[in-house]
């Protein structure tokens, strides 16, 4: 779980933030005991603070007694800059790709050493999807992630290469192989994966380049069952969309 233990004398605000910080992609609902443990608080203290958060709609208590993020936090999160201008510019182009292909389309940015998914439009194809809006996934085994990793600062690539983990039997965990893939991404401006994040799912992704300074600021991609069958037509649609987004940023 996320979160940082509180030190003696820590102010109430810090303790409230510790409780909220316990929630992440893998821990969307937590018990009171789990919240207390993650925040480094006695259960009695956590109970008092959680009650205040529930009263203020920052948390919501479910019927089974577990807690989830409340409407107040959700609404505030949607106002974050990373969720604003880029999503607003990109959304019409993502709709165009989806309408033309009927596959699942993603918009993502790099957040530290992970991929942060800002938008997802679900396609009709029966393909296993792990990502959700707001979720973070590894960069080395996702199409959008490989695009962003290829253009990340050297120190980011070093950290990612030092901790490559295998998600499926097809995940690339050999640094030399991944380095060669990233070099091709920089050369060809396209990344692909085949069942590296989910079995039965392949992905295709391209960079979004801001024209004012040629910076790669995001990646858009799609998840499909078969790259050979759908890849060529999909690649053209993604490239057109990425250029349109880059022009307007």
UniProtKB/TrEMBL annotation:
In terms of Gene3D superfamilies, this protein maps to: 3.30.450.40, Winged helix-like DNA-binding domain superfamily/Winged helix DNA-binding domain
Q: Give the keywords, sorted.
A: DNA-binding, Transcription, Transcription regulation
Q: Does Disulfide bond show up as a keyword for this record?
A: no
**Keyword Coiled coil carried by entry:** no
Q: Name one Pfam family in it.
A: HTH_IclR
Q: Which GO terms describe its molecular function?
A: DNA binding; DNA-binding transcription factor activity
GO BP: negative regulation of DNA-templated transcription
IclR-ED domain residues are: 72-249
**Looking at the record's lineage, which domain of life comes first?**
Bacteria
**Domain HTH iclR-type positions:** 10-71
Provide the protein name: IclR family transcriptional regulator
Q: Which organism is it from?
A: Mycolicibacterium aromaticivorans JS19b1 = JCM 16368
Q: What is the lineage of its organism?
A: Bacteria, Bacillati, Actinomycetota, Actinomycetes, Mycobacteriales
């Amino acid at each position: 779980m996320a979160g940082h233990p509180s030190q003696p004398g820590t102010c109430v605000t810090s303790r409230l933030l510790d409780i909220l910080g316990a929630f992440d992609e893998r821990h969307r609902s937590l018990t009171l005991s789990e919240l207390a443990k993650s925040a480094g608080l006695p259960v009695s203290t956590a109970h008092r603070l959680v009650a205040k958060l529930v009263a203020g709609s920052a948390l919501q208590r479910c019927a089974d007694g577990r807690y989830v993020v409340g409407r107040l936090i959700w609404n505030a999160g949607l106002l974050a800059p990373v969720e604003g201008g880029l999503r607003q510019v990109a959304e019409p182009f993502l709709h165009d790709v989806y309408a033309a292909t009927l596959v699942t389309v993603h918009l993502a940015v790099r957040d530290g050493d992970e991929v942060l998914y800002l938008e997802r439009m679900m396609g009709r194809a029966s393909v296993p999807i792990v990502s959700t809006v707001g979720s973070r996934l590894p960069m080395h085994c996702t199409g959008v992630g490989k695009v962003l990793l290829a253009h990340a600062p050297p120190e980011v690539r070093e950290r990612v290469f030092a901790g490559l983990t295998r998600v499926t039997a097809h995940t690339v965990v050999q640094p030399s192989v991944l380095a060669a893939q990233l070099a091709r991404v920089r050369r060809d401006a396209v990344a692909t994966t085949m069942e590296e994040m989910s079995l039965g799912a392949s992905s295709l992704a391209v960079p979004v380049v801001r024209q004012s300074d040629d910076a790669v600021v995001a990646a858009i991609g799609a998840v499909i069952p078969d790259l050979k069958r759908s890849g060529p037509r999909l690649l053209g649609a993604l490239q057109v969309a990425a250029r349109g987004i880059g022009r307007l940023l």
